[in-house]
Amino acid sequence: MNIKEIKPLDKQSLEEIGLEWHTDSDNTDYISNEVVEISKSEAETFYEAGNELYDMFVEAGQYVIDNNLFFELDIPTTLIDTIKDSWENEVHWHIYGRFDFAGGFDNKPIKLLEFNADTPTLLYESAMIQWALLKYNRMDSNSQFNNIFDCISDNFKRMITLGEDINRFDEMYEGWGVLFSSIRGNSEEEQTTRFLLECAKNAGLETEFCYIDEVNFSEEEGVFFNDRKFEFLFKLLPWEIISIDEPELALIINKMIQNKNTIFLNPAYTLLFQSKRILKILWDLFPNHPLLLETSYNPLNKKQVKKVSFGREGANIEILENNSVIEKKNGEYGNYKSVYQEFYELNSHNGIYYQPNVFFAYESCGLGIRKGGNIMDNFAKFVPHIIK
Question: What pTM was estimated for this model as a whole?
Answer without folding.
Answer: 0.96
